[in-house]
Amino acid sequence: MQLHIFLILFCIITIFFIELNNGASTKNTTSKKNEKNPSKAKPLILGGHTSWTTKIKPKHKKIFNDYKNIIFKKLREIHKISNTFDLQPDKFSTQIVGGINYLYLIKLPINKYAFVSIHHRIWRKDHYGKEENVHIRPQTYELNDKNI
User: Fewer beta carbons within 10 Å, N or C terminal of the chain?
Assistant: First the structure.
């Protein structure tokens, strides 16, 4: 007798949930396969830098300008630029490694890029603005170099 009661109770509960679910929306099983330009996400490389962009945000421009005198001094030492050179970043990227590396490509008068890295530790207030945070590679890069 108890088995019959459990079976009837099970059927009533099942019917209740089926009726309750009738108003639920179903998932759309069709997908758009005719997209013209499917965007492929680049794989994230841990420790790697973001892709280079020519659109430099104001906060990144401010960081560059805060270090501009130090960058100019080091560029004169390493790449022998003139005192009248207009120092402007051409491309920008970031890298997260024990702080943030702000990476800038500066177009030199010889039509090559100089690679400038500014290391910034956000949690250390006494770290900002020091000459030791700026690193300039002695190597120059072609304007169309994809391996920077």
Answer: N
Contact 51, 115 (CB under 8 A): no
The Cβ-side half-sphere exposure at 127, using a 13 Å CA radius, reads 14
Q: What pLDDT, in 10s, does the model give residues 22-61?
A: 655 666 666 555 555 556 655 556 678 888 999 999 999 9
Within a domain: 34: no
Residue 33 located in a structural domain = no
Tally the domains of the chain. 1
Give the type of residue at 62: K
Q: Cβ-count burial of 120 within 10 angstroms (0-12 exposed, 13-18 middle, 19+ buried)?
A: middle
Using an 8 Å Cβ cutoff, are 113 and 141 in contact? yes
**Looking at the domain assignment, is residue 98 inside a domain?**
yes
Domain that includes residue 107, residue range? 58-142
CA atoms within 13 A on the CB side of 75: 27
CATH of the domain at 103: 3.10.450
